[in-house]
Each structure stands twice: as C-alpha cells, then as structure tokens.
Write a structure and sequence with these properties.
Blueprint lengths: L8 H14 L3 H18 L21 H14 L9
Length: 87
C-alpha cells in the first residue's frame, strides 16, 4: 500500500542520515519504526477513565451549566466580592 505522510524537515534529515549510516532504505526504516511502535502500544493496556474523570453522584439531565455559572456570577456581584474595605 502506498500512502503520503508529512514529516518535519529536521526529523526527515535525521532519518535520511540514519538510513545512510545503516545502509537501509527510508521505507525499511519507516516499516521497522512503525512495527516497533505498534508492538509497544499493543502491549500496553488501553486507557480507561479513572474515578477522577467519572461523574460522582446523581446526574441531572436538566442541569444547565451556563445558567449555574450566571447564577454564581450574580451571587458574587451581589456580595461585591471585589470591594476591599479601607481602614
């Protein structure tokens, strides 16, 4: 299969130098690197969300975050949180 990939110029220059040093083709280098990365990733467990990513407590399908933020802002402004009392 043929495909086109974009590789940053500095990385491509380094890859070409490594290929010349080891007398291998760019195709060979890419296939070896891809196979090694696939093997490494396949051996790792798939990422699963941990408890800190999960919602805790009951979920309200009618919850509107924008409304909640607006209410919080209005409450903060009502309390005049930015005013510093002078002595």
């Amino acid at each position: 299969m043929k495909t086109t990939v974009e590789i940053r110029d500095p990385l491509m220059a380094e890859a070409k130098a490594v290929c010349a040093m080891h007398n291998i083709t760019m195709k060979g280098l890419i296939e070896r690197a891809l196979a090694a990365e696939i093997e490494k990733l396949a051996a790792q467990p798939r990422w699963q969300p941990t408890d800190e990513f999960l919602w805790h407590g009951p979920v309200d399908p009618n919850y509107d975050a924008d409304v909640a933020i607006d209410q919080m802002y209005l409450e903060m402004m009502k309390n005049d949180f930015m005013t510093v009392e002078e002595d």
